[in-house]
Amino acid sequence: MKTMHAITRAISPRFNECELTHLARTPIDLALARAQHAQYEQALTSLAVQVHSLPAEPDFPDSVFVEDTALVLDEIAILTRPGADSRKAEVDSIAQALAPYRKLVHITAPGSIDGGDILQAGKTIYVGLSTRSNNSAIEQMQAALAPYGYTVRGVAVTGCLHLKSAVTQASPDTLLINPAWVEKSHFPGWKFIEVDPNEPSAANIVLVPGGAIFPAHFPATQKRLEQAGLRLTLVGATEVAKAEGAVTCCSLIFTA
Questions:
Q1: Catalytic site residue 249?
Q2: pLDDT tens-digit map of 66-87
Q3: Catalytic residue (one of 18, 37, 160, 162)
Q4: Which of 22, 104, 109, 137 gets the most CB atoms within 10 Å of its CB?
Q5: Average pLDDT of 16-41?
Q6: From 18, 160, 249, 250, active-site residue
């Protein structure tokens, strides 16, 4: 029987030096950030996910956001080439963590891509065309994944850092979406739950077989999700939000 795994990483002591694109810098409470991250890992464990927590990387302020370093599919793992130069070296230690589980393929220059721009929906891989991800990476991904039956599609996003800032999978047939940041027409055949307009950053949710993890600071969107029948595990995520992060950013989830 296969087990659901999650690779996570502890908060860097330099988290306040994180990369920012769309937000003004505000102080991050490191103690609170660490407490919230521990709650996040506990939430994963409560949903029958085996958590592999890597130590903090003092030299990499954004390294808690492990999602940006890889795409892990059933057949293969693609190691990304993050769009911010300060983050490129984060991939090395994640490669070591994933090597026991998957064959690894690397995105190379001039390709650049953050995992936060990658949304898997069955055999379709959507990639946000953002400031962090480009067409060269999409072409490399398509070449690597075509033998396994995947199709890779670029998707325009506006107003946010990553595609998964704007849309994530909330249930087997439903996407949680902010339609102001990404158009629904890119995702034919899916049902949608729209975020509350007063919570534009609420379109990020972690879906695992045991349930879903959602930030506690979006109560209006939380109500919409619960009215749709979703069972949510709420976590504090205010501090990663100050770094333009969200709940999917903080883990790499796969089965093995």
A1: yes
A2: 999 999 999 999 999 999 999 9
A3: 162
A4: 137
A5: 97
A6: 249
